[in-house]
Fold this protein.
Amino acid sequence: MQMTLRWFGPTDSIELWKIRQIPGVTGVVSTLYDKKPGEVWTAEEVRGLKKLVVDAGLELAGIESVNIHDAIKVGSPERETYIDNYITSLENLGREGIKVVCYNFMPVFDWTRSDLAKLRPDGSTVLSYRQEDVDKVDPTKMFEQMDANSNGFMLPGWEPERMARIKELFEMYKDIDDTKLFDNLVYFLQRIMPVCEKYGIYMAIHPDDPAWPVFGLPRIVTSGDSLVRLMKAVDNPHNGVTLCSGSLSSNPENDIPAAIRALKGRIHFAHVRNTKHNGPKDFEESAHLSSDGSLDMYEVMKALYDIGFTGIVRPDHGRAIWGEVSMPGYGLYDRAIGASYLIGLWEAIGKSATNNKG
Ligand SMILES: [Mn+2]
């Protein structure tokens, strides 16, 4: 596996040279932060992004994310144009040697949290979700709440221009159920598979977060089984998964190591983080350490090891600690601790496996 960190480009408050100093982190996953879904990524823009990363001594190990236009998700006639644009973006990424592209297929809202800075007993803060709190919020007001707590950073998936159209977006999805959304995803994947094969690009869908419908909108990537179903529907290794242990584990019924084993050969990117369940549909993003949350992180890493995973990994959201002010979930300190912990688990698992053989 290759350990990476997410980096939001030149406007990220975390500089690349700092990321490079985390032991074992050899790359970043990044995006063209200002791109709107549906816009073409030009060759020059991709080259520019890659140059910044390479000049800092790191590898641009993948893209998170190239976002999908809503026309593709709802399957309106304009989707053809937007799929063509997506293909052009993939060609420009492929020519620059990018092999992994993360994306999600969530309607209207990306990830949702009810609190971006829940205070923990040790004084750190974390992102958290309580269905009870979300149910009290008018979805059109959700953006204002998220924006007010973002420390002034633009949250990925919560771009102001998108949220200005929130009513229109809900209108677009009013006739879209799980079946239609799934069919539109399959259609999109089938259309892009040839360009992925040509350039050796592996698409990696990110699970929905949280792993259940929010505000009555359909959600179709919520479990290991739903991912396996998607893998079978477009049975091509270029159609793969971003295994996000945090998003999937928002539902405690999801067995993450089992999902990893079921998806052998199709996981191209792993987001590894822990969650702590506080009640039904009530969780917080704990430290990565197993004992701080509800997941056994050894078992998660062991499952990845056992399936022969060679892709990219990143620690996922971190806590805000040591007074750091950053985009919620994306400070340097706790993600560096998380990366080191995961690398330590990986080293131990690998050495145990070798010793047992000998
Ligand atoms: Mn994730």
